[in-house]
Amino acid sequence: MNTTNPFDEIEQFLGRTPFAGERAWGRDLRTADIDVAEYDDEYVVMADLPGFDRDEIDVRAREDRLTIAAERDAEREDADRRYLRRERRHESVTRTVDLPTTARLDDATATYRHGVLTVTVPLDAVDADEGHRIDVN
Fold first, then answer.
1. Which residues pair with 111 in a beta bridge?
2. Whole-model pTM above 0.70?
3. What are the residue boundaries of the structural domains of the chain, listed by start?
4. How many other C-beta atoms are found inside a 10 Å radius of the C-beta of residue 125?
5. Which residue from 31, 27, 89, 95 is spatially nearest to 58, judged by alpha carbons?
6. Rounded CA gap, 101 and 110, in Å?
7. H/E element holding 48?
8. Measured between alpha carbons, how far is residue 26 from residues 75, 89, 121, 136 in Å?
9. Is the pLDDT higher at 122 or at 78?
10. Residues 35-49: pLDDT tens digits?
11. 73: Cβ–Cβ under 8 A, 6 or more apart, which residues?
């Protein structure tokens, strides 16, 4: 006996598949995947933003937070084109990262290559109260 799950048909109707992620009325709801690294003199955030153009990416640093946002619309196609299925519409991605208190926001830089945004925020030297680190050879 072949049994079907009625919820599978509903998910197909709504455009959800096991690999598609959550969708709400044509808007893809997700956050950017990131890696964060802290070194002695800088804080580095790498965000995956494949398919976005530089002018669609907004990076802002305020107080102790770094916010990465990207937004794009699918290209406006010819009105005569008839789609059998159309899923590429609007996509919005955002991510916020807490920065260390020693971050120098005015000196932060960002590069975007091959779908990866890299934001580098220099850090002030460690307070004198913590002493000077001596390397052990």
1. 118
2. no
3. 32-125
4. 10
5. 95
6. 19
7. strand 42-48
8. 14, 6, 35, 57
9. 122
10. 999 998 999 999 999
11. 89, 90
